[in-house]
Amino acid sequence: MSLKTVGSALARSLLTQGRRSSPRGNRLATTCCGSAKGKQGCDGKTKEQSCGGGSVGSGDVGAGPSSDPSHRAAPVGGNKKAEEPVGAPGVSGVRGRSYFTKAAPSDQRSYMWARYHEMKRLVHDLIPPGACGILNPSTIYANNEVSLAEVDIYGFDYDYTLALYSNALHSMIYNAARGFLVDHFKYPQGIRKYEYIPNFAARGLHYDIQKGLLMKIDAFHYIQPGTVYRGLSPVPDEEVLELYGGTFHIPLEQDSGFYGKGPRVKQFMDIFSIPEMTLMAVANDFFITNNIDYDPVHLYKDVTEAVGMVHLKGYMYKWIMQDLGKKYILRGEETDAVLHKLVDQGKKLFLITNSPFAFVDKGMTHMVGKNWREFFDVVIVQADKPHFFTDCVKPFRRLDCDGALRWDKIKSLEKGQIYKQGNLFDFLKLTGWRGTKVLYFGDHLYSDLADLTLRHGWRTAAIVPELEQETKIVSTSRYSTSLTWMQALTGLLEQLQTHQDPASKEVFQEWKKEREELRIIAKNLFNPQFGSIFRTCHNPTYFSRRLCRFSDLYMASLSCLLNYDSNFTFYPRRTPLQHEAPLWMDQLCTGCRKTPHLEEMSTIR
User: Would you identify the family this protein belongs to, as annotated (predicted)?
Assistant: First the structure.
């Protein structure tokens, strides 16, 4: 049974209970399972026992009994309404209840916990063993409908797209940048004692440059509580509120530019930035723990420049070219298979990368063979993305077979040749490759994909290597059951919140505490410091929202294409909006009955 099937079953069960609890369809009131006096109800009690009058809050699923008939709704307009005969067709024989109440059943605490255990049993029964391991890490996910039959041209970035790298590269970048920070920028020698921490940072985090804080922000520009770090230590939520004027909100439109870079806040969007974030945290931690006064702005600039030196001086390129085996480059044979498949299908291919030719040539030769250039109709290196997509000034220059620049004017882009720099506007003129017949793959949402989808209408596909591990975690029984129960518990909080008596409020506090513990458990399964790169509690992350905006498709690796034929159409899931029917997993228990039904509104007024 799939999670969607489980979700639909749980939704039906909740709605069925709601129908049983109301004389008018989905409304929430006590109900009788029998229709004749003296007949046993669903709980084994007689009708008189199970039909006691009472008041029920919004969203109660089968509310408990109350012996006080005074909380029944008064007839609209003061006119007494004739009682319906018990057992009449379509009528339960129960009078309408008022929507809000502070009155409690005789033992309100027992009633609340009975509802809790009833919901927990329901969740447990509807998730059979084996229902959770349904996600395939090799799936291609769609944000927008894309038909591969309409795609004639495939474009690629190189790093983390055609070539996937192992995590061993991160520690090498960190160690080299740490050395530059100490030797070139004269930072204290004590920083050398900090080794690389592989699982500290995650892609998509934001860094407050002036405050020296690393944090995770959701799609609505709010900081996720518990994910703010100064150095290697978490910052208490109370201190975060104080630092940001009593709110978790960050006005990113003021503090950060379109590409995630700003005078106050920087977003780290590519995988190469993970060692940079770690070194940033380590340097901050050293100064803080040793009580050394420092300016976080200077530290940010120095660390950024130190990491940049690793790339500019070519260290990373040398490491990879010296060891092209499994230590650094992964799944090269899969890249070879993808390129062969596309060429055999008659597709045109092109490569646009910021990496130098010698580096790309070495890697592609390792993965595909010496004739790798025969697969591509156009190859462009050192393109200087994202400026390649916005700048119409830089011309293309051709490289000879030794990588030396030629001086001839470029009037056409020829197969087998290597070109440097250039710009997209000249590229479009010379190739005529426009619109939705082009699908471009890249790993950086800003540098690779944003301008192409927003300005030029190309189809875009994001490579997100973290997706493979995250889908494995999501498919575990522990995560799925925790998530489903957390959603069900949230539904109880929402539906029963109109009970305002002291006993109910105490129960609510216990439930909220458990809900927070469930959130922490779910977060720690991905990353103990920052959690999933796609979720902040219940909201999408800022990274996730940009992923949905700038990519039509996303996948763990380019090899996912091998699972689909050339005419396959990708369809996005129709996830419900908040006001739509709760038929999917994420809205099983919440959003069902957020407001009173229309007939009950008259009672409230």
Answer: Belongs to the 5'(3')-deoxyribonucleotidase family.
